[in-house]
Amino acid sequence: MNKRQDAIQELAADTQIRSFPLEATSNQTERAVQGVREMILRGELQAGERLTELSLVARLQVSRTPIRSALLRLTEEGLLEPASATGFVVRSFSEDEVFDSIEIRGTLEGLAARRAAERGVSPELQAQMRQCLAQIESLLAESSPGGTHLSRYAALNGRFHALIMAAADSAMLDNTLDKILNLPFASPSAFVEVQSHLPGSLEILRQAQAQHWDILDALLSRSSARAEPLMREHARSARKNLELVLADQTARQQMHGASLIRSTPTQGQ
Amino acid sequence: MNKRQDAIQELAADTQIRSFPLEATSNQTERAVQGVREMILRGELQAGERLTELSLVARLQVSRTPIRSALLRLTEEGLLEPASATGFVVRSFSEDEVFDSIEIRGTLEGLAARRAAERGVSPELQAQMRQCLAQIESLLAESSPGGTHLSRYAALNGRFHALIMAAADSAMLDNTLDKILNLPFASPSAFVEVQSHLPGSLEILRQAQAQHWDILDALLSRSSARAEPLMREHARSARKNLELVLADQTARQQMHGASLIRSTPTQGQ
DNA sequence: GCATCATTGAATGTATACAAATTTGCGTTA
DNA sequence: TAACGCAAATTTGTATACATTCAATGATGC
């Protein structure tokens, strides 16, 4: 499928994962989508704030039509939600919802790992997986605690996860997972880049990398019964990381899209 | 969450599941969405056919703006896909993709069942589940093979599945599953109504109902380790049903959205 | 005769005017 | 003083004109 292939190419080019650059585009709709998304993730638009098309026209220098399309797309992405009868508000997420999205990701990635183990991984993908993990390995070996290689780790980590999706070879699964990964805090590497301040961050990454090797081993030995639970548990460690980040106010505020997460789980809505 | 509650109410009212009535609406966009969806599911628009906004304006008596919104929404629903750089085409699905979507549904429903078992089912939901299964039971007892109660079975079956989602109490999970259920062949009751011609259809429904009781038992005994695999296996029996329907040309053509499914799995695209 | 380029046509992208609807605020009345 | 209702203003829904881009076809030159 095109989208998955693109993702792998993109990751192979060692670019940052899920970056939303405001690069020049001839497309006004794209400009509007990126603009509004940036404003939300930066926290310029408060969670719960109502968005009017005209105010966005003024802020983004784009007419109402592309703004309208952009709001629909961002609603689809999950960053906005329809307000009462008319208009949109910036969505907020309870901590429970964030945890849920990680568990759903783990479940879907677990299904992908099982499928990959069942149908076997092509030699090309095997090689790419091995190379990817080797790169992470050398990164972890050379980097001192609190080093600045975290963004590279995040990219490689995302690449490994994308390779497993590629091995599962299911466009339906890709599309379903993509919807979850759209949320800024649900991706496999969402918290990596803000962990540098936290104690024991390097150890956490080492544990995750050990799980990577176990998963790869399960895939190569065609052990679907191992691959699926290993992948699920791997996602659960992401949840543990998130709990650490959310507990630390400094790290929490540095997190991408932190303003979308409500402090009190059951409040609001 | 509102959406789930609505679904349960709707099902409780014993209406047909996933019906898309062309009822009068003051909303032109809604009219366009329903119109195009109907045309696709009826097979008036061939899979792979390119849709131009102007031709739809002529057919639906609605201006380009709501047509445009409708095409975006239907793309989101998965019935359309973007054509090269511009425009949309009616999407087609390989049989593998249909099977995949059922497996993904089973996986997500399995997660829901596990969550429901872990957190316990409220007395109200327990009562509704029991009542729902009892209604199916009496339906199966009274109906002769090849009876015409299949649409009522489909509604009750859908209701039971919705109740499990409600018991899981996860908006994120709801949203993710909704995307899958949008596909006309992925819902739990997609094939029920066309099975009447097939031999052994009543026996298939009885087996499914037996699984329902097992699942309910697992939920009530808080056995998450039983609930999840039972739910998954329940979805696999839907896959078996689909294989029967697809193999029978008569039943296949009666299926909702049959024109979207390619006969040869790897062809096209 | 084939290839390349230009011109023409049709489709989508964008902007905006107008209509409908919803919300807000003020005033009046109980 | 509080509540209800009406009116005005703001906001979204819809239609359409205009701009731009893409594709196809034909003509011309090699």
UniProtKB/TrEMBL annotation, chains A, B:
Coiled coil: none annotated. SMART domains: FCD, HTH_GNTR. This is GntR family transcriptional regulator. The keyword Transmembrane does not apply. Residues 26-93 form the HTH gntR-type domain. InterPro entries: GntR_C, TF_FadR/GntR_C, Tscrpt_reg_HTH_GntR, WH-like_DNA-bd_sf, WH_DNA-bd_sf. The keyword Plastid does not apply. Gene3D superfamilies: GntR ligand-binding domain-like (1.20.120.530), Winged helix-like DNA-binding domain superfamily/Winged helix DNA-binding domain (1.10.10.10). It holds the Pfam family GntR. Keywords: DNA-binding, Transcription, Transcription regulation. It comes from the Bacteria.
